[in-house]
From TrEMBL:
The keyword Transferase applies. It comes from the Eukaryota. Residues 14-124 form the 4'-phosphopantetheinyl transferase domain. The gene is SMKI06G2600. The keyword Transferase applies. InterPro entries: 4-PPantetheinyl_Trfase_dom (IPR008278), 4-PPantetheinyl_Trfase_dom_sf (IPR037143). Keywords: Transferase. It comes from Saccharomyces mikatae IFO 1815. This is 4'-phosphopantetheinyl transferase domain-containing protein. One of its GO terms (molecular function) is magnesium ion binding. It holds the Pfam family ACPS. Transmembrane segments: none annotated.
Length: 173
């Protein structure tokens, strides 16, 4: 199926964009290195604030296979951050911020980044959210219904010191 034809007529209900200065994340990795036992706990606390458990698992695998100077680590972290920021902005276009869960809940518990076989990023709603976090049950019920009818189309790009992410919240086909 031709991609353009598959997306014609889909209603966009929200748009968000975020830009990140990559040296900021490189500095974070220097200051709170996941490779240094003295700073690993702080590193883990930082990533728990904006990364879903599935993203942290992928990050752990990157840490095992990559060396300390590889830019993939800070690019991955920056990409997650930027996607979460722009997803919050896209959701805010069609939902009152008062109706959204706190940003940290949205970032670290509700949404997570994956990719398809071609490496195209995707942003997913955690279907286990309500089970794992009963405190947010009323949010979960409405968002599960919302995400069954809508999805994020996302893109990430980086060049030298900058990474940009875009999230379009669209009606599902």
């Amino acid at each position: 199926m031709n991609f353009e034809l598959a997306n014609i007529g889909r209603k966009i209900v929200g748009v968000g964009v975020d830009i990140v200065y990559l040296p900021r994340f490189a500095h974070l990795l220097e200051k709170h290195s996941p490779f240094d036992p003295r700073t690993r706990l702080t590193f883990d606390k930082i990533t728990q604030k904006f990364m879903h458990e599935k993203e942290r698992c992928y990050l752990s695998n990157l840490l095992i296979e990559e060396n300390r100077s590889n830019p993939r680590l800070h690019e991955y972290m920056a990409g997650i951050w930027a996607l979460k920021e722009c997803s919050f902005k896209a959701l805010s276009c069609c939902t009152s911020k008062d109706d959204l869960p706190p940003a940290q809940v949205l970032y670290a518990k509700m949404l997570y980044k994956t990719q398809n076989d071609e490496g195209v990023p995707k942003l997913q709603f955690d279907k286990m959210f309500e089970e794992k976090y009963p405190k947010y049950q009323r949010f979960s019920k409405s968002y599960e219904k919302f995400f069954s009818a809508h999805e994020f189309l996302v893109s990430i790009s980086h060049d030298k010191d900058y990474l940009i992410a875009l999230a379009n919240l669209v009606e599902r086909e």
